[in-house]
């Protein structure tokens, strides 16, 4: 989104992303860029990328670019909105995972720590009662 906002075209922006990132996604983007530079329209090359990877996030990215190019919507705005959506989805996944971990942490507290604490609280009183009855 930043590269497109700065005036770079979509192919130049994807090229910049390819140079700055690594891993499988960077390789797939580089492959898509090579296909686009060989004469295939960028939209078709990106749709091929979405089909090859079968990632929902990438499919939404490609759909956003397709819609932006067909309707003439500013691409930078579409990319910014998609980036915000991806960040929000990541935050939501982290919160959900944290909630599950919180529940998992309650099990040892309830079954291990709480009984020992109750035992320490009741033991002096029980000892006193036993001594009084003797």
For the structure shown, list the relevant keywords.
134 residues, rod-shaped, mainly alpha
Regions with little confidence, pLDDT below 50 for 5+ residues: none
Helix content: over 70%
Count of strand segments: 0
Beta-strand content: under 5%
Number of helices: 6
Net shape: rod-shaped
- Strand-pairing-aware structural class: mainly alpha
Main beta-sheet strand count, sense and barrel state: none
Order of helices and strands: HHHHHH
Quaternary organization:
single chain
What radius of gyration results from the CA coordinates?
28 Å
Distance between the termini: 82 Å
Would you tell me the overall average pLDDT?
88
Description:
This protein is an all-alpha fold and 134 residues long. The protein has a domain at 2-75. It contains six helices and no strands. The longest helix is centred in the C-terminal third of the chain and has 59 residues, at 75-133. The protein is rod-shaped, with a radius of gyration of 28 Å.
What is the gist of this entry?
With 134 residues, the protein is mainly α. The protein has helices spanning 2-5, 10-20, 23-37, 42-53, 56-71, 75-133.
């Amino acid at each position: 989104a930043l590269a497109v906002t700065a005036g770079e075209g979509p192919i130049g922006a994807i090229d910049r992303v390819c140079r700055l990132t690594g891993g499988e996604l960077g390789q797939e983007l580089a492959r898509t860029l090579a296909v686009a530079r060989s004469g295939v329209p960028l939209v078709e090359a990106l749709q091929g990328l979405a089909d090859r990877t079968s990632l929902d996030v990438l499919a939404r990215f490609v759909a956003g670019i397709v819609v932006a190019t067909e309707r003439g919507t500013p691409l930078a705005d579409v990319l910014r909105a998609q980036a915000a959506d991806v960040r929000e989805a990541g935050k939501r996944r982290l919160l959900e995972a944290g909630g599950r971990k919180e529940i998992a942490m309650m099990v040892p507290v309830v079954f291990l720590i709480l009984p020992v604490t109750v035992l320490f609280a009741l033991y002096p009183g029980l000892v006193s009662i036993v001594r009084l009855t003797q």
